[in-house]
């Protein structure tokens, strides 16, 4: 009896339509300049006819090549050589062989178009490469889930039988959590609203620039606008009222933008934990389904702001192993917001079987960090004072209150940052705490460290202070101004890395 996917096979037949529509969309997107030209110039009927004939011919050629791409795209699993094999190409045939132990992550994606035609996209991500992941864009739900489960199983175990696949698929669900629309609304209102406001200001800046260009060539319109403003908005109260209304409108619009972004990105976010894995599914525009295995996780980052803490909405970021490419490292970060504290504890217990609270060593940076941060934060204040004094002619009685206010706020934040910055080293974990407004907790299992680098600036040599960076396959964790006596604990970690036989990925 042949095992699943052991013989070369194509995608679902409806995949031809998906390939054709995606290719056609890319071509038309590249021809948008021509479309604008035709709208502005108002071409004749004859020219439009030639244009439509050209588009029809372009569509036929695109369909022809889409069929060729579909027929030449094949994939299968070679159980003997322990490889996943992908064949593709029209004029140049390409064969990609991926060993099972190089498969880092397998997950499912669905764009709006893929949901309309009822197909799934299987994404295979490999470690140690900056190349784009492998995408199989059109499989049925049964085929996509079967391929995903088999490849994940084969990447973890070299001898993976059909019976174990069935057992993995029938595992009992331990708990499930779904973000409700009410939770998404709270996240949208309390998250990234400054980004929404920033987008509004960027849009307004563009509009103002275009209006300036228009008024330079239309003086009559410019004078009409000036006359209208001078006639209707003469009082200070009216101007203040308009500015206040504009400010409130901008803030509300910023909230709306951030809320829409949250709904699109995290719509129907669902976590399901079984005995051996955790499944995360989310997204409205592009729906993704990811399987988390404890061994794949390189770093866990918990974060919360006072507002989110009040609403019991915590965020966790799971950093998976990836390449050295910065863009791909960002793609290997899985962010899960809006979690209550009890679900946070369950995720932590699943990914880390050992307790992370037992602390062997606590390391605080040297207090010189306070002075350094105050010095860096004083640079904007110095620039502000020089500008208003030399160019705006402000007198010192007006400048000094700004200096005092800025200094008090700056010292408060710098001191709070120092008080919250701490490095904990246990027998099995490296834990970093930081943050003033947004509190962060970063956790790395010691055996997953690839290396530790210790650097010392020339001006810190006399004080015996170092910057320590812990390197993992998913990213780095740095801690500044570590005293020399704390390096003993770090040397113990280096020894454990060298002597550990655990598989880090």
TrEMBL record:
The lineage of its organism: Bacteria, Pseudomonadati, Bacteroidota, Flavobacteriia, Flavobacteriales. The keyword Transmembrane applies. Keywords: Membrane, Transmembrane, Transmembrane helix. The keyword Kinase does not apply. It holds the Pfam family bPH_2. The chain crosses the membrane at residues 12-35, 47-68, 193-215, 235-257, 370-392, 398-414. This is Putative membrane protein. Residues 70-150, 266-350, 418-485 form the YdbS-like PH domain. InterPro entries: UCP026631, YdbS-like_PH.
